[in-house]
């Protein structure tokens, strides 16, 4: 116990790193994922093709490989990125593919008549999506989006393998320092992740109840 | 009556001079192998109320939906107020703003209040101020008799009320022509009249209307012309009195016999 207490600063720093990584990557994933979903349902074939290509590429590539590509691959073409920004980019780009598919399932669940009514009023495709379709789509995909984001928080642990001092990186460092406290360190790290994911799950439940609409 | 005579379309002379407001010429459309619209010619004058009737699958809803290009056509030409329907994009959106549409299933925006449903188009498309759009929306909602429901959501209203809101939503755009695609077909019988009454008053006020419907009473009371479709073609086109008392084609006679006997 003393050992954990002595390293409280380290825990706090690591926790904040994981939290920051999760928030930034989550924001990137939500924005980019929604944009990709809009492209995948757009009437313009090249946009649809591009978004489909993106989703299939990132969804079917292991996250570790994405990290390798961003952190060690990009410098080959003279695009050097720091470890933390690289981790944000890797996790964000990867998760965007899953966000896209969740949002797209929501778009498909909105009845076609809603978009038709919007178009019949003279709204452009973008306006119909923004004003009518996406607000309803998000309401139906709150639970799957919650899943995607919670999985993302745990996926940030791969950053530990790429010199980011996040919660997971504490495991080898502290265990090497004093193997006797392995259990305590493990519990500390798990609690750190739960402090992020459990409130997220609760928030998802609240949002789901609040935005529920009558049909 | 021979079948060759039946396929000839009697023309009703236009009531006002000049360019018709809506003109379809040589319009064809296929759904895969199915030729749903076959060489359709139809002109609708300003202020005219045209009722389109026919058996299910005759192409009447499709015809209605081609006029604002919710259904693209394969050949032919459609013009509204002398302007050819654009293919896609902003031009088409601009033209659609001038064509009001009322759907069978209402299609009110489920996540918006009644008032927001009516103000969305004027604010986003016509760039009206919120205050101006709301003032006009309340006027229209009062006119169709659902003013007190302004702050409710669509699912809290009856079908008849929802459809009247849908009419108000279309009117808020100050359309040149209104399309009604079976507006009463999804309604309980006791709610049909409240919607038809609103439509009849619109017709009296001189709105140009294309109405796909099974309501023969509405056709008799409000239509300037009845267009009878079957198998993707316009089989007959006549003033209601003539059409209902003295249909020319066998198919129209057959159809009328079936629906007017009960």
Automatic annotation (TrEMBL), chain A:
Record domain ABC transmembrane type-1: where: 15-203
Residues spanning the membrane: 20-42, 182-205
Keyword flag Flavoprotein: no
Keywords: Amino-acid transport, Cell membrane, Membrane, Transmembrane, Transmembrane helix, Transport
Top-level taxonomic group: Bacteria
UniProt subcellular location: Cell membrane
A molecular-function term among this protein's GO annotations: transmembrane transporter activity
GO terms for biological process, alphabetical: amino acid transport
Similarity annotation: Belongs to the binding-protein-dependent transport system permease family. HisMQ subfamily.
Matches recorded under NCBIfam families: HEQRo_perm_3TM
UniProt-recorded name of the protein: Amino acid ABC transporter membrane protein 1, PAAT family
Species of origin: Geodermatophilus poikilotrophus
Automatic annotation (TrEMBL), chain B:
CDD domains recorded: ABC_HisP_GlnQ
SUPFAM superfamilies assigned to the protein according to its UniProt record, in alphabetical order: P-loop containing nucleoside triphosphate hydrolases (SSF52540)
A Pfam entry, by short name: ABC_tran
Catalytic reaction equation(s): a polar amino acid(out) + ATP + H2O = a polar amino acid(in) + ADP + phosphate + H(+)
Enzyme Commission (EC) number: 7.4.2.1
GO molecular function: ATP binding; ATP hydrolysis activity; ATPase-coupled polar amino acid-transporter activity
Entry keywords, A to Z: Amino-acid transport, ATP-binding, Cell membrane, Membrane, Nucleotide-binding, Transport
Localisation per UniProt entry: Cell membrane
Cellular compartments per GO CC: plasma membrane
Sequence ranges assigned to domain ABC transporter in this UniProt record: 22-256
PANTHER family in alphabetical order: AMINO ACID IMPORT ATP-BINDING PROTEIN (PTHR43166), GLUTAMATE_ASPARTATE IMPORT ATP-BINDING PROTEIN GLTL (PTHR43166:SF9)
The family this protein is said to belong to: Belongs to the ABC transporter superfamily.
Protein name, UniProt field: ABC-type polar-amino-acid transporter
Lineage: Bacteria, Bacillati, Actinomycetota, Actinomycetes, Geodermatophilales
């Amino acid at each position: 116990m003393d050992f954990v207490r002595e390293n409280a600063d380290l825990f706090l720093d690591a926790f904040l790193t994981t939290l920051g990584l999760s928030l930034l990557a989550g924001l990137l994933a939500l924005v980019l994922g929604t944009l990709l979903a809009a492209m995948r349902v757009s009437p313009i074939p090249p946009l649809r093709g591009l978004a489909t290509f993106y989703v299939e590429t990132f969804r079917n590539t292991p996250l570790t490989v994405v990290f390798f590509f961003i952190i060690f691959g990009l410098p080959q073409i003279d695009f050097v990125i720091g470890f933390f920004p690289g981790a944000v980019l890797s996790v964000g780009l990867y998760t965007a593919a899953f966000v896209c598919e969740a949002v797209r399932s929501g778009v498909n669940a909105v009845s076609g008549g809603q978009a038709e009514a919007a178009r019949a009023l003279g709204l452009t495709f973008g306006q119909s999506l923004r004003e009518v379709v996406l607000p309803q789509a998000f309401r139906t995909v709150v639970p799957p989006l919650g899943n995607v984001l919670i999985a993302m928080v745990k996926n940030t642990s791969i950053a530990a393998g790429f010199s980011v001092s996040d919660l997971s990186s504490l495991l080898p460092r502290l265990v090497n320092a004093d193997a006797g406290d392995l259990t305590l360190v493990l519990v500390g790290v798990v609690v750190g992740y739960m402090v992020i994911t459990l409130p997220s799950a609760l928030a998802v439940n609240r949002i789901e109840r609040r935005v529920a609409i009558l049909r | 009556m021979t079948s060759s005579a039946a396929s000839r379309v009697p023309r009703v002379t236009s009531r006002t001079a000049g360019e018709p407001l809506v003109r379809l010429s040589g319009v064809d459309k296929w759904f895969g192998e199915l030729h749903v619209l076959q060489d359709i010619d139809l002109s609708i004058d300003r202020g005219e109320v045209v009722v389109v009737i026919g058996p299910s699958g005759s192409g009447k809803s499709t015809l209605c939906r081609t006029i604002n290009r919710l259904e693209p056509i394969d050949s032919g030409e459609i013009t509204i107020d002398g302007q050819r329907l654009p293919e896609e994009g902003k031009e088409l959106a601009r033209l659609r703003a001038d064509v009001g549409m009322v759907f069978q299933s209402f299609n009110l925006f489920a996540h918006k209040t009644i008032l927001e449903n009516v103000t969305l188009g004027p604010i986003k498309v016509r760039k009206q101020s919120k205050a101006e759009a709301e003032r006009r929306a309340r006027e229209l909602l009062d006119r169709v008799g659902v003013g007190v429901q302004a702050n409710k959501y669509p699912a809290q209203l009856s079908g008849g009320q929802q459809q009247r809101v849908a009419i108000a939503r279309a009117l808020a755009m100050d359309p040149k022509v209104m399309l009604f695609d079976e507006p009463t077909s999804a309604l309980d019988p006791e709610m049909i009249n409240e919607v038809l009454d609103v439509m009849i008053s619109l017709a009296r006020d001189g709105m140009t209307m294309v109405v796909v419907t099974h309501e023969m009473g509405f056709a008799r009371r409000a239509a300037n012309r009845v267009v009878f479709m079957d198998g993707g073609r316009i089989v007959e086109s006549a003033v209601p009195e003539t059409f209902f008392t003295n249909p020319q084609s066998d198919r129209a006679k057959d159809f009328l016999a079936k629906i007017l006997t009960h």
